[in-house]
C-alpha cells in the first residue's frame, strides 16, 4: 500500500478526475458577445472582464504584475445515462501581453489539463473580435493532440494583448469504481467563490462535502426544476484543510458514486487481503516454532509481531492492483521483505496459526480519514488483534516501524481513524490510541561547576520515555561507543556549547525498557563570558529550543507528538563571587501547552528549574495564540542569562 497523504489520489488515478479548480464556476446566461460569436452559454464576457482586470492589477510577491491570469473554471458532470458519465471541462484565461507572455504563459499552462485531446479553444480579443484559436493550433500540428511546448509558444506569439482564452473539452467514460468523485483543489485559488454542478437523472440525490472537513459542508444551490436535474454548490469560505471536494450520488436503492458503509469497505478488503493467507504451510510451521516457549497469549502476540518487525525489511514492490492486494504470506516470509500490507498480513497469518484472532487494519499516515462519506481513503495497513485490555477490546501494532516497540504505535498514526477489516459482525471506524505528554518525556538533571576563567565541568543525567526515546534508542544502537560520544558532542554544539564529553554511559538501550537513560560528564573551556569582574552565562544549554522555533508563516502548526520536558540545573560558582542578576520568572499555560521557568538563589549556587509541556498535537484555533506564546517563551529560554560578579 502506498504511504503518504497523497497516496489515495494516486491509487484512484484512473477514476479520480484531476481538476485544478482555481477560479469561479459560472452558471450564467452568456452575454451578447458570446451569443453572437457562438461561444458557450456559460461564458459571461462582462463579468470575466471585470474579474480579470481586478486580478491583473494585483502585483505578485515580487511586485510584478502578472501577464497571464486564470479567471474561472467550470465543470459539469453528466451522469444521466445509467452508469455512463460525461465530464465537460471549461477554463477561461486572460492574457495581458501577447508576445511578452512566454514565461508566464508557460507557467500558466503547466497547471492546465494534460489531456487536451479534442479540446476547443477560442480567443476573444480586447476589441471583442472572436477567433477559434484551436484551428491555428491544429493547422500547425496537423493533429488534434496538442503538444504542451507548442501551445506554450502559441500563447506567447499568437494571442493578442488583452485577449481572453476559452478552453473546452469533453470526456466520456464508464464508471468502474464505487468510490466518490474527488476533485482536487489547488492552493492558488485566485477567487474565493465558485460553484460546481452535476447533471443527473430525476430521483438521484447529489450531495457534496469537503473531504477533510466534514463539519463544513458547501452551501447547495437550489436544483433546477427541469427534467434534467442539475444540483450545484456555492463554495465559499473554503476550509483551510479542504484539499479535495467530494461529490456523491445516490438513490434509495443504490449509491451511484460512493460506497454505502465503512463495513462494506472492511468486508471488501478482508476478502481481498484474505487471499494472501491461503495455503501457507511454512507460515504455520514458523508460528509453531516461535511460540513454543510462550506461556500466555500476550507472549505469543508479542513474539510473533516482533519477529516480523525485526526480520522483514520494508520494500514496496507491486503491479496492477498491488497497491491494495498483499502478496501471499509464505512469499513474504521467504523473501524477508514486503510493504505495510505484506508485513501486516504476515503478522495476521502467524497470529491466526497461533490461535490469536487478528485482522488487517486500514489507516492513514498523513491525513486522517475525516471524510463525510465512506471511501477507500487509506494509505497504510497495520495489525489489529483481540486484546481484552486494549481500547474497545483491540490491540494494534505496526510492524513497519522498526523503532516503535510492541505496545506503542508510531506517532504518525496515533489518534487516527482505523478500519478493522474482517470482523464479524463488521464494525465501522475506530480511533487508534494516542499517547499523552506524560508518555513522551525528557528530563535533564545537571550539576555545573563554573571556573573563574569561565570554563565549566558538568555531570548530567538525561532520561527519556515514549516517542522521546524510541527513535534515539534505535539510532544509538547503530553507533559504536566512540560514535555515540561524537553524536552527543555534535548535539551539544548545536545548542551553542563547545563541549567535550569525557564519559558517556547508557542505561535501557538493549533492555526491554520504556526508559532510556544517558549519564555523561562534559567540560567546556568557555561556557561563561568573562567581562571585567563579571561572568555572564546562559544555563539553559540542555533544553535549548534554538532550532525548534515555530515557523512564523505557519498559520496552524502541527507537532509530531505530545511531550513534556523538565530541566533542573544547579550551577555552583567559585567562592568570592555573588549573583548580580537573574532572569525574571516566567509561568504561562493553556489547555494545549504550558511553560514555567524559575531561578532560585542558594549559598554558592543557582538552581534553574524549567518545565515545558505540549498536550495537543494539533491545537484548536482558539488556542493558537497561547501556543505561540508558549513556543516563544521556550525559544527565548536559552537566551536568559545569569550575571555573576565579585
Uncertain spans, ≥5 residues at pLDDT below 50?
2-37, 99-116, 140-146, 188-193
User: What is the CA-atom radius of gyration, in angstroms?
Assistant: 31 Å
Distance separating the two termini: 67 Å
- Please give the order of strands in the largest beta sheet: 4-3-5-2-1-7-10-9
Q: Percent of residues in beta strands?
A: 25-35%
- The oligomeric state of the chains shown is single chain
How is this structure best described in words?
By secondary structure, the chain is of the alpha+beta class. The chain is built from 14 helices and 31 strands. The strands form six sheets. It has an eight-stranded mixed beta sheet with strand order 4-3-5-2-1-7-10-9. An eight-stranded mixed beta sheet has the order 22-23-21-20-26-30-29-28. β3 (120-124) and β4 form a beta hairpin. α4 packs antiparallel against α6 (148-157) and α10 (329-335) packs across α11 (340-353). The longest helix is centred in the middle third of the chain and has 15 residues, at 297-311. The protein is flat. It starts with 6 loop residues before the first helix and ends with a strand. Residues 2-37, 99-116, 140-146 and 188-193 have low confidence and may be disordered.
State the gist of this model:
Helices cover 23% and strands 30% of the residues. By secondary structure, the protein is of the alpha+beta class.
Amino acid at each position: 500500500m502506498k504511504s503518504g497523504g497523497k497516496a489515495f489520489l494516486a491509487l484512484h488515478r484512473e477514476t479520480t478526475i484531476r481538476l485544478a479548480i482555481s477560479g469561479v464556476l459560472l452558471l450564467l446566461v452568456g452575454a451578447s458577445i458570446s451569443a453572437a460569436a457562438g461561444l458557450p452559454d456559460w461564458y459571461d464576457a462582462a463579468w470575466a472582464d471585470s474579474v480579470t482586470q481586478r486580478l491583473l492589477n494585483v502585483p505578485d510577491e515580487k511586485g510584478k504584475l502578472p501577464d497571464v491570469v486564470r479567471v474561472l473554471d467550470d465543470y459539469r458532470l453528466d451522469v444521466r445515462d445509467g452508469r455512463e458519465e460525461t465530464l465537460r471541462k471549461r477554463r477561461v484565461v486572460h492574457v495581458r501581453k501577447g508576445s511578452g507572455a512566454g514565461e508566464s504563459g508557460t507557467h500558466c499552462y503547466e497547471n492546465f489539463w494534460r489531456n487536451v485531446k479534442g479540446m476547443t479553444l477560442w480567443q476573444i480579443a480586447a476589441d471583442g473580435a472572436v477567433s477559434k484559436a484551436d484551428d491555428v493550433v491544429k493547422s500547425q500540428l496537423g493533429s488534434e493532440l496538442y503538444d504542451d511546448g507548442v501551445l506554450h509558444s502559441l500563447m506567447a506569439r499568437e494571442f493578442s494583448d488583452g485577449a481572453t482564452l476559452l478552453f473546452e473539452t469533453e470526456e466520456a467514460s464508464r464508471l468502474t469504481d464505487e468510490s466518490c468523485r474527488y476533485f482536487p483543489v489547488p492552493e492558488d485559488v485566485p477567487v474565493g467563490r465558485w460553484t460546481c454542478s452535476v447533471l443527473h437523472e430525476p430521483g438521484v440525490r447529489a450531495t457534496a462535502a469537503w473531504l477533510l472537513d466534514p463539519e463544513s459542508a458547501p452551501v447547495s444551490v437550489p436544483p433546477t426544476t427541469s427534467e434534467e436535474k442539475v444540483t450545484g454548490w456555492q463554495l465559499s469560505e473554503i476550509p483551510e484543510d479542504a484539499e479535495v471536494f467530494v461529490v456523491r450520488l445516490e438513490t434509495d436503492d443504490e449509491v451511484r458514486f460512493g460506497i454505502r458503509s465503512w463495513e462494506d469497505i472492511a468486508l471488501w478488503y478482508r476478502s481481498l487481503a484474505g487471499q494472501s493467507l491461503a495455503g501457507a504451510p511454512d507460515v504455520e510451521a514458523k508460528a509453531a516454532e516461535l511460540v513454543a516457549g510462550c506461556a500466555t497469549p500476550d507472549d505469543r502476540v508479542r513474539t510473533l509481531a516482533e519477529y516480523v518487525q525485526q526480520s522483514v525489511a520494508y520494500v514496496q514492490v507491486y503491479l496492477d492492483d498491488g497497491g491494495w492486494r498483499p502478496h501471499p504470506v509464505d512469499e513474504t516470509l521467504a523473501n524477508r521483505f514486503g510493504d505495510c500490507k505484506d508485513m501486516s498480513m504476515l503478522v495476521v497469518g502467524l497470529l491466526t496459526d497461533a490461535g490469536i484472532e487478528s485482522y488487517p487494519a486500514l489507516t492513514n499516515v498523513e491525513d486522517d480519514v475525516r471524510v463525510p462519506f465512506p471511501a477507500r481513503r487509506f494509505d497504510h495497513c497495520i495489525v489489529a488483534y483481540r486484546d481484552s485490555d486494549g481500547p474497545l477490546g483491540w490491540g494494534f501494532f505496526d510492524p513497519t516501524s522498526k523503532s516503535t516497540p510492541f505496545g506503542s504505535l508510531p506517532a504518525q498514526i496515533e489518534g487516527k481513524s482505523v478500519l478493522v477489516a474482517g470482523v464479524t459482525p463488521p464494525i465501522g471506524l475506530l480511533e487508534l490510541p494516542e499517547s499523552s505528554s506524560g508518555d513522551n518525556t525528557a528530563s535533564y538533571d545537571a550539576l555545573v561547576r563554573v571556573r573563574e576563567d569561565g570554563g565549566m565541568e558538568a555531570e548530567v543525567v538525561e532520561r527519556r520515555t515514549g516517542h522521546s526515546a524510541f527513535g534515539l534508542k534505535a539510532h544509538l544502537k547503530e553507533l559504536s561507543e566512540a560514535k555515540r560520544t561524537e553524536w552527543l558532542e555534535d548535539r551539544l554544539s548545536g545548542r551553542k556549547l563547545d563541549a567535550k564529553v569525557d564519559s558517556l554511559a547508557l542505561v535501557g538501550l538493549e533492555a526491554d525498557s520504556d526508559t532510556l537513560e544517558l549519564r555523561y560528564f562534559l567540560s567546556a573551556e568557555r561556557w561563561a563570558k568573562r567581562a571585567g569582574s563579571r561572568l555572564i552565562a546562559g544555563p539553559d544549554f540542555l533544553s535549548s529550543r534554538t532550532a525548534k522555533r515555530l515557523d512564523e508563516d505557519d498559520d496552524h502548526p502541527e507537532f509530531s507528538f505530545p511531550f513534556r520536558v523538565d530541566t533542573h540545573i544547579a550551577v555552583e560558582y567559585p567562592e568570592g563571587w555573588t549573583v548580580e542578576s537573574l532572569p525574571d520568572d516566567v509561568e504561562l499555560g493553556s489547555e494545549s501547552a504550558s511553560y514555567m521557568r524559575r531561578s532560585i538563589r542558594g549559598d554558592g549556587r543557582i538552581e534553574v528549574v524549567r518545565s515545558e509541556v505540549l498536550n495537543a498535537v494539533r491545537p484548536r484555533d482558539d488556542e493558537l495564540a497561547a501556543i505561540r506564546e508558549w513556543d516563544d517563551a521556550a525559544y527565548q529560554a536559552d537566551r536568559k542569562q545569569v550575571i555573576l560578579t565579585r
